[in-house]
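Table 4 source record.
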Amino acid sequence: MSVIDPGKASATARVISSSAQLWSIDYQSFNHFIAADPLIGFHVMKAMARILCRKLRIDNENRLHRANDMRAHFLDQDY
């Protein structure tokens, strides 16, 4: 996420397998990489946009369900 928005990271990655590899790239290096080959940059950014859109959809659905649950709870109250 911080390769798109250079703000503070909101997560930490940890390798839990000795056969796994963890790669890291900083904001400036990532921007240089996608600027050097616009086609690759397009595909990388499109893949990242899909991931972010999927996460937004899930978050929106969760918020809607919580709002409906709260609404139902308050409507069921005997005032």
